[in-house]
Amino acid sequence: MKQQGAHPEDTEGTPDASSRPGATAPETAHIDEVEGDEPLLPARVHRPSDLMRLLAGVLAVVVLLAIAAFAHGTTSGLEQDINKGTGQAPDLLIKIAGLASSIAILLVPVAFAIERLIKRDGLRIADGVLAAVLAHGVTLATDLWVARAAPDSIQEALTQPSPGDIHALTDPVHGYLAPVIAYMTAVGMSRRPRWRAVLWVVLLLDAFSMLVTGYTTPFSIILTVLIGWTVAYGTLYAVGSPNVRPTGRTLMAGLRTVGFRPVTASRVESGDASEAGDRGRRYFVTLEDGPPLDVTVVDREQQAQGFFYRAWRNLALRGFATRSSLQSLRQALEQEALLAYAAIAAGANAPKLIATSELGPDAVMLVYEHSGGRTLDSLPDEEITDELLRDTWHQVRALQSRRIAHRRLVGDAILVDGSGTVILTDLRGGEIAAGDLLLRMDTSQLLVTLGLRVGAERAVASALSVLGPDTVADCLPMLQPIALSRSTRGTLRQLARERAEREREAVLEAYRQSKPARAEHGAHQVVLDKPDKKAVRAEQRAEKRAVDEAMEEAREEDLLTQIRHEVLRIRPQAPVEPARLERVRPRTLISFIAGAIGAYFLLTQLTHIEFGPLIENAEWGWVAAAVLFSAASYVAAAMALLGFVPERVPFVRTVVAQVAGSFVKIVAPAAVGGVALNTRFLQRAGVRPGLAVASVGASQLFGLGCHILMLLAFGYLTGTEKTPSLSPSRAVIGGLLTVAVLVLVVTSVPFLRKFVVTRVRSLFAGVVPRMLDVLQRPQKLITGIGGMLLLTACFVMCLDASIRAFGDETTSVSIASVAVVFLAGNALGSAAPTPGGVGAVEATLTVGLIAVGLPKEVAAPAVLLFRLLTLWLPVLPGWLAFNHLTRKAAL
């Protein structure tokens, strides 16, 4: 098979088969045969390690500039100490060092480039040249910034008067030193100790001579090195590093170097691509004179796969539940070899490791005796017998008897050979001398793995027969999704979605079966022409009871709950409270980030406000009225939501949820955060997910309709205020024409028409049936619509009171004009992508109030007070309410 994508240097130094004593021509042609289609290797790869080094370099540059800006005394003292120490060096030594370094700093990179070109490694040289050019551009930009825009303290730390011209300053960053550092980093001199040592000696001599002669400062040298280093890794991550992953033929050559005589090698595909990088690439190799082999190849690129996921796990989970995000190849090799030998010594069936070797500087291989067989995932259900389950638990018990944790007991890590013997593979991620918690995590993982295939009852029964009830009961606190493998969590999520779909279908079927009875009862009432309210209510209660019963019958327990119940039958006193494995909960992290974003927006808004004049000129009676109207809006918002929820939901807690929404909308767009919070609140209050979404959607749909109608009505009134005739204002006419044009455009363009029809159809599929349910309850409908009207009235009155707090009788405007301005500003704020409509709402309200005749001196502080009362000041109570509801499991 023809291999592509490997770098020419990958096969450098690999012995050819024909050079081995006794090799014949036919054998040589046979040895390099690789069966199967290996995936085409990309010529370049983007390494997460390069990105991490880039971010570290940027952070180091920021820290250095911050020290230079705020620690002026420290930088000055450091420069004086260095100048005093270097000033004692002999002049002859300084001149020799300066001359030698000036020549060598150009010759060494050129010599290295020639050596790489001779070995056909031009790609690395091209990367180095690109990094050098970019570093030179960054140095020029930095020099320009320091000279013209940087603070004086930074300029003093990076420059000093030039020895040749006291009126000129030295360069803040060396224009030739940073490119050289970027070049040497990008071409990979760190992997060649001799070249690296020579170049670093040259760089140190050059820096020393520049310091002694007064042409630079210590901070300038450090900044130069950081810029070159950072630009190099940024370049490597952007364009990608040459792929040095070994190919199948490189594997064949490596096997020959450790004494094997391979004939063919075929790639064995991994079952789970999400975790394939942790297990390496696998090959089945046949030999000329012996049984076949199983070979695992691990390289740097595979180790980097899933790096950010593992880094997040290390951050979120406690130390005992995690492992290193990125091991070196040597560490990975030693760990897997150690686990393989330890597992066999413990009496467990594991693949026998017979050889290890490096495949160049960027890959290693581990050679095992061929095990054969099939994985547990590939076995049909009828072949998974109770004896096979018990054998699996026996292997795990053997590992745990020697304190060995497997850490990945999933289906494709459990192998069953032709005789039915269980073999545990994929020991690379395990640990020796493991603690009790890790051993319990192994037990819980295997319980779930077997439960996914044979059910909770058989999985628990097999574990009890081998490990005993006490050991199995002790693993219950670890029986939680975060303690399971990534592939197992994905499978559980898929099963949860399927289970929810079955429950939904059962409820819909019960609803459909009740339709004929409702239709017959309705026809009977029409014939009698005597509708009985009690009978209608009884029918509605019976319908709700039928739906609830259908939901209860269709409700299924998830696998983890089934396993717990099976264990508790044997050990009722077993601990079931999940162990705290998380160092940082996602909800806590999200809450912290959201609070930081909200604080940032709040501070940026408040820093530009002069509070003195506002407080002196304000009418505090109207300010108090505005505060009351703002507080009443939360009660109105709760009414507007509960009016479209037929189920019983506590009113006071709903009001608290609306207060919590004032915190959510400051960290998310207004049209998104409130909907998500109300939906989550209704679900936690006992409303089924689909119905909760439909209730919030119905509330939003009614609110949109009321908003449009009120905008048109108040806009019409503003047109009649100044004229005796009942003619609408030009703004209303223009708005109607604009809407008509948009409707024509949407209906005439097929793509837009299809998009709108799809969205409207999905809306009517869920929301309209919910609205029909609400229409059957007049009290709920009145509550919902009344709450919407009251909510708008509270905001309009709050804005009007804010205007009156800073105005007088000569600057007042009508309530209809204030309502139009608020409705327009609120609509724009809901559409704006900024949190809470920040910026868009303020601008719209201010411009709108000025347009209706309010002076700018009154409009600006009035809008400011209104936004403070309705957006910014409720943030802290909203945050407290959000955390309170979260602790009470109401969100």
TrEMBL record:
It holds the Pfam family LPG_synthase_TM. Keywords: Cell membrane, Membrane, Transmembrane, Transmembrane helix. InterPro entries: Kinase-like_dom_sf, L-PG_synthase/AglD. It is found in: Cell membrane. It is a multi-pass membrane protein. Residues 1-40 are annotated as: Disordered. The chain crosses the membrane at residues 54-72, 92-114, 197-215, 221-239, 589-608, 620-643, 655-677, 697-719, 731-752, 781-801, 813-832, 862-882. The keyword Iron-sulfur does not apply. Its main location: membrane. PANTHER family: UPF0104 MEMBRANE PROTEIN MJ1595 (PTHR39087:SF2). This is Lysylphosphatidylglycerol synthase transmembrane domain-containing protein.
